[in-house]
Amino acid sequence: MIVRTRFAPSPTGYLHIGGVRTALFCWLFARRNGGQFVLRIDDTDQQRNVEAALKPILEGLRWLGIDWDEGPEVGGKFEPYYQSQRADRHRAAAARLVAAGQAYRDYAKTEEVQAEREAAEKAKQQFVYSRRWMAETPEDCARFESEGRQAVVRLKMPREGKLVIPDLIRGDVEFDWAREQDHVVQRADGSCLYHLASVVDDHDMEISHVIRAEEHLSNTPRQIFIAQGLGYELPQYAHLPFVAEPGSKVKLSKRKLDKYLKNKDFAQLVQHGQKIAEAVGLTVDMDTFNPVIVDFYEQVGYLPGAIVNYLALLGWSLDDKTEHFGIPQLVEAFSLERVNKAPASFDPKKLMAFQERHMLEVPAEEKVGLVLPYLEKAGLVPRGDETATIKVRRIVEAAGDRIKVAGDILDYADFFKPDNELSYDEKAFEKRIRKAEDAADLLKKLREVLAGAEAFDAASLDRLVHGFVEAEGINIGQIIHAIRVAATGKAVGFGMFDTLAILGKESCLARIDRALAMV
RNA sequence: GGCCCCGUCGUCUAGCCAGGUCAGGACACAGGCCUUUCAAGCCUGCAGCACGGGUUCAAAUCCCGUCGGGGUCACCA
């Protein structure tokens, strides 16, 4: 049997991190087993601008490297891949269900069923639809229609017996048919509901494994009933635990950002992203710029491989030690048997740890490519400027692992600012230059030493400054902090000699002069 | 509330099916080392089998119950 899995998002305009995890597991399973991964769009007739709402979803998946063998933009032998365009097949299936006696035309009004439901609730009894407006013969139909009623199609669900769903992750899950309702599968206007459509499409597209989030487990009995009524062979089911809120077991939701912001780590993740986004002129609309949505990570400069690695480990593990995976290794190692049952909460800190780990493996040259767009968008570097690229390369190398996400390059924005526009951190200036003993005098002397320097590379500067320190009989700490603040305006940064070398003699002197003038 | 799912350090997890080495790893946290700051790195530490009964020589592991958390109960997807 050929393994075929599918991810079926509805075009909401954004890609939810939990959705990605589901897509990833579907994709990994298909890839691992030499099968196919299908992307189907579960849109509805009501939805407008499907194309626009779909775009971020497709882009997000592609960015992460989750490619689909069939679906939007790539086509496939089971076209169309938009549920709304398959309505005819859904209607035909509904009709077959009715013809087979597995479903019936029901002329009840919504309020009438609702009244029955409420009555049962009031009596603290399980609601069972009376089927009072069920029409099983043409005569019934005619009679109800003469009353001006319209029919929906309801499933004629069994009212006794048990159903066992074999779930690849949860084992056998047992349900009582009697707990199920006569669910509506087709509206009076002929349009069909999700559960019917989904079952029909999965069958038509020859989906072998339905891998989806746990919230669908409770819906599975009715889907099985539909599939059996239609004479389909059942797919294998696997219900994934969902991705939960930080520090909780509640399903992660895009809408509860305010709540998550109270979580220290989550807030930090957002702030870090915001700082970068603002510097490059992105609108930080919380509706889209939100760590629950995948776009966030792309915009801030995370590595797709790091996101995938982290997400894969959220609910799946290979063994007791392996955590670092590239995508090919994940494909190689993935199995549904090792998927956890319990929900896993989203941990911003751990995500960042994976990001750092993956960033370590990016060669400097490649990193320059990742980082450059941020400097360009922030207006610090002109597009396609060769000289600037060389400088960026030197900064990237000197900064090393300090650049955790591509946008972190903006921490070094001061390297690109004109010397007279450099702003000084007031606290650092106070502590390291104004208050530090002899700092200003030493700085003045060192300035002259630097001015006379013949070579301005890091190694030469290292020798030069150490020579100066020795001659003055001081500790290097007594001068180096002062130079740092004078040259960069900040108290922290990467290696001092690298910093001076990258800045160049002219800038260094200009900045020191400026600092001295401010004492 | 009914039904279903789940329950190992703060978090992600290994171990459970085939009971038996101080319950292992990672992130985070704390302390230390290194060091011109920061970051990284290295070392050390802190911290968990939800609870209660069984079964057994022996239970995180098997059985029963309790509690807790979550999901789902639409003419939404």
Please outline what is shown here.
This protein is an alpha/beta fold and 519 residues long. Helices cover 46% and strands 9% of the residues.
Terminal CA distance reads: 78 Å
User: For the report, how would you describe the main beta sheet?
Assistant: 4 strands, antiparallel
| Alpha plus pi helix count | 21
Going across the major beta sheet, what is the strand order? 4-3-5-8
Mean pLDDT: 94
Annotation, overall tally of beta strands: 12
Helix/strand/pairing category: alpha/beta
User: Roughly how many Å is the radius of gyration?
Assistant: 32 Å
- Strand fraction band? 5-15%
Query: Low-confidence parts, pLDDT < 50 over ≥5 residues?
Result: none
- Overall, the morphology is elongated
How helical, in percent, are the residues? 40-55%
How would you characterize the overall build of this protein?
With 519 residues, the protein is of the alpha/beta class. 46% of the residues lie in helices and 9% in strands. It is built from 21 helices and 12 strands. The protein has helices at 17-32, 50-64, 87-99, 110-122, 138-146, 194-204, 220-229, 257-260, 264-279, 295-300, 304-312, 327-333, 348-359, 364-377, 386-399, 426-434, 439-451, 458-472, 477-488, 496-503, 505-518; strands spanning 4-7, 36-39, 103-106, 134-135, 152-155, 162-167, 171-176, 184-186, 209-213, 236-240, 243-244, 344-345. The protein has a 4-stranded antiparallel beta sheet. A two-stranded parallel sheet has the order 1-2. It has a two-stranded antiparallel sheet with strand order 6-7. Strand 1, helix 1 (17-32) and strand 2 form a beta-alpha-beta unit. Helix 17 packs antiparallel against helix 21 (505-518). The protein is elongated, with a radius of gyration of 32 Å. The protein starts with a strand and ends with a helix. The chain binds one RNA strand of 77 nucleotides through helix 4, strand 7, strand 8, helix 6 and strand 12.
